[in-house]
Amino acid sequence: MVAMQWTPDATIKNAFWIGGGQWAGKTTVAGILAERHGLVHYYYDFHAARAHDDRRVAAAVRQGGSFQATDWEKVWIGPTPDQMASDVLASFRQGFEWVLDDLRGIGTAHPVIAEGWGLRPELVAAVTDPARMVVLAPTDEWRRHQVAHLPRAGKISHRVSDPELAGRNRFARDRLVTADAVAGAHELGIRVIEIDGTRPARAIADDLADHFRLGTQP
């Protein structure tokens, strides 16, 4: 991998992006590519659950609101999956501005590989070449397999009155969010790779390396 001249905007423009559904292997694949090709791995979920959440609270306070602990019953039990998906997608638009701030602050001459379900095709395409993005979309069958065999893939970590209903709502919400990413990718000419559990992560990484023209594995 040839190093580039670093500028804040170049970090964004020259990044590679992996979006798509939850539990599609985005983090694993990005880690493989980072190790193979000397990329800097930007882990969206880590930032979204920490610094971005703090920014969200601070923004609400600045606008005259006050901090209130999240009512997880209203998150997982009250709304329909359609409402849940709509709320999540709206949060991604705000969060993406913070992603761009994060990337501008990464002072490296090496390209960044950014991955996460909040990196939506229409948002990424607005700041760089859509060819620099790939969407990974898990099939329903693969997600059901994960829920059945990998407890953390289906578990709701928050205390709610009906964990089984919450889990079903989450599954339906995630299906809708994934479908939205796939539809957006098709509209923008962004490559979509279906993940059904039949191919190892390294094979998926090979596909992305070829797509991004990262060169041969050292």
TrEMBL record:
The UniProt entry, under InterPro entries, shows:
P-loop_NTPase
Q: Which Gene3D superfamilies match?
A: P-loop containing nucleotide triphosphate hydrolases
Write down the species. Paractinoplanes atraurantiacus
Q: What is this protein called?
A: Uncharacterized protein
